[in-house]
Amino acid sequence: MTNPMTITEKILAHHADKDSVGPGDLIEVSVDMVLANDITAPLAIRVFDELGTGRGFDREKIALVPDHFVPNKDIPSAQQAKIMKEFARLHDIKYYFEPGDAGIEHVILPEKGLVVPGDLVIGADSHTCTYGALGAFSTGMGSTDVGVSMATGKTWLKVPATIKVVYQGRLCPWVGGKDLILYTIGILGVEGAVYKALEFSGDVAGSLPMFQRLTMANMAVEAGAKNGIFECDEITRAYMEGRSERTPVYFNSDKDATYERVIDVDVSSIEPQVAFPHSPDNVRPVSQAGDIRVDQVFIGSCTNGRIEDLREAAGVLKRRSTARDTRLIVLPGSPLVYRQAIKEGIIETLLEAGAVIGPPCCGPCLGGHMGILADGERAISTSNRNFIGRMGHANSEVYLSNPAIAAASAVLGRIGAPEEIGCVVSEQKGCSDTILNF
Amino acid sequence: MKFEGKVWKFGDHIDTDVIIPARFLNVSDKDELKKSCFIDTRPDFAKGVVSGDIIVAGINFGCGSSREHAPLAIKAAGVGVVIAKGFARIFYRNAFNIGLPILESEEAFASFSEGDRISVDLVTGEIRGLESGKSFFAKPIPTFMQQIIAAGGLVNYIKERG
Ligand code: SF4
């Protein structure tokens, strides 16, 4: 008999070829997918070349996604993207994508079935933790670690202790994964889970659709966590149906697994949340936001750039217009999301409301391009970070919310809720397909 | 290894966007990176920092993105060592990997102010105020990380092991 373990510990033990592991163990693990983007890949490639192994460990287990500054915004970024492309061609990397087939890394990897439950994934991007939604262990590292793993197929890790967050109760209207994770980061603080695993649990977590799980796992790093993870269930299996050529391994935590801390959250009284500048843990319920005028609304990113997010935004924006002094920028998270949004008439609705639709990429989320804020400007964004200068000028401000709040704020010209513009959901599940307009 | 220099004091949660904003990540050359280090919040830093100077900061230093450009920029600017009450996970790992020495000490943060001259002994972990004479020992560096430093970074460490 092995010790009882959490899902995180089980996946790590599996990849370390051990029967069991526990918090604090230093282990060497094999990786199933190594990821880098147009900002981090050039440094990783330099490290890879220095190591001098000549070949990548497995051409099918490396993903290189140009998404941060593409379509290339200037000559230096074009040079960086070129380094990545040439490397991909030289080593015949299977998962390198040209813009047009690419999109935001953390949107496309799950979408294309490149990550499956039970995987161990490392990426030179802090939001690599997104894939925990699928019941995989995934974590962000720097370019050196990733360059080494591209050559060796291995990395070292310290097994994290796990903090379990148990969500119970009944979700209020417009409340979903984004609100739950913002609320949780508000409780933990931005350093509250440093070096830890965050396991999302309880009936409410178990009922969340995959896109909302992806949003929550995505932001685990905003509490400092090494990884965020959901146990595998029917929703995981249904999501994986026909999606990948690889075989998933479905892990769950043992009932008597040890947790460093268990946090119980009654969701029944949680309103949609807004994170105020300049920290994702600086959260307030939307009803207490006060009169915050916004110059820009951004809907997109690896946190909320999926089709369901756009559906929710379009539901709120239908037959409405953005406020006169507010610009609305929408970037679908992937070409597939974009196409589906066209098919469903979502793009039409957004355009009629006055939105600018940009290509699938990170864009303004990191202050890259396509929506940079000027001195003193304010934005509400569905992305994950609102640090000083994150989306532009050091004196600009970023507020974070879910797509429905962002859409309503675009109409109001200030931060507000859909109810304020006469938009209600028919059922108490914060879900986009039940939006009614009056 | 010993460093002696001036303290540049920072608060809690110094994130990687503050260390180097994303608009400067379109290059990976370290001489370019150092120019943008703390450019938005402390524009005097990159020009004023002298080789061997020391950053003293609060909790969660380096939180946010995985950009290795952040420790690279700090190192390229000439900072000898970063002492913080605590580090964000990815930054901690990146700093060792690229050979930027970092130490954890609560007392250093409490005792030293901007502009103080201090010395740091990386081998013993001793941090000493040159004017005040106050001295503390940083939290010991985990053995595995020491091996990476001894090898001169992760790349050499891997090469040595074959
Ligand atoms: S969308 Fe934003 S948070 Fe996500 S990978 Fe791109 S820059 Fe990073």
Automatic annotation (TrEMBL), chain A:
It catalyses: (2R,3S)-3-isopropylmalate = (2S)-2-isopropylmalate. Binds 1 [4Fe-4S] cluster per subunit. InterPro entries: Acnase/IPM_dHydase_lsu_aba_1/3, Acoase/IPM_deHydtase_lsu_aba, Aconitase_4Fe-4S_BS, Aconitase_4Fe-4S_dom, HAcnase/IPMdehydase_lsu_prok, Homoacnase/IPMdehydase_lsu, IPM_dehydratase_rel_enz, IPMI_cat. [4Fe-4S] cluster binds at residues 302, 362, 365. Residues 9-288, 290-413 form the Aconitase/3-isopropylmalate dehydratase large subunit alpha/beta/alpha domain. Keywords: 4Fe-4S, Amino-acid biosynthesis, Branched-chain amino acid biosynthesis, Iron, Iron-sulfur, Leucine biosynthesis, Lyase, Metal-binding. Pathway: Amino-acid biosynthesis; L-leucine biosynthesis; L-leucine from 3-methyl-2-oxobutanoate: step 2/4. It holds the Pfam family Aconitase. HAMAP family: LeuC_type2. GO terms for molecular function: 3-isopropylmalate dehydratase activity; 4 iron, 4 sulfur cluster binding; metal ion binding. Gene3D superfamilies: Aconitase, domain 3. The keyword Zinc-finger does not apply. Its cofactor is [4Fe-4S] cluster. It is an enzyme of class 4 (lyase). Belongs to the aconitase/IPM isomerase family. LeuC type 2 subfamily. This is 3-isopropylmalate dehydratase large subunit. Transmembrane segments: none annotated. Its EC number is 4.2.1.33. Catalyzes the isomerization between 2-isopropylmalate and 3-isopropylmalate, via the formation of 2-isopropylmaleate. The keyword Lyase applies. SUPFAM superfamilies: Aconitase iron-sulfur domain. GO terms for biological process: L-leucine biosynthetic process. It comes from the Bacteria. Heterodimer of LeuC and LeuD.
From TrEMBL, chain B:
It catalyses: (2R,3S)-3-isopropylmalate = (2S)-2-isopropylmalate. Residues 22-101 form the Aconitase A/isopropylmalate dehydratase small subunit swivel domain. Transmembrane segments: none annotated. It comes from the Bacteria. Coiled coil: none annotated. GO terms for molecular function: 3-isopropylmalate dehydratase activity. Its EC number is 4.2.1.33. NCBIfam families: LEUD_arch. Belongs to the LeuD family. LeuD type 2 subfamily. PANTHER family: 3-ISOPROPYLMALATE DEHYDRATASE SMALL SUBUNIT 1, 3-ISOPROPYLMALATE DEHYDRATASE SMALL SUBUNIT 2-RELATED-RELATED. Heterodimer of LeuC and LeuD. Catalyzes the isomerization between 2-isopropylmalate and 3-isopropylmalate, via the formation of 2-isopropylmaleate. This is 3-isopropylmalate dehydratase small subunit. It comes from uncultured Desulfobacterium sp. The lineage of its organism: Bacteria, Pseudomonadati, Thermodesulfobacteriota, Desulfobacteria, Desulfobacterales.
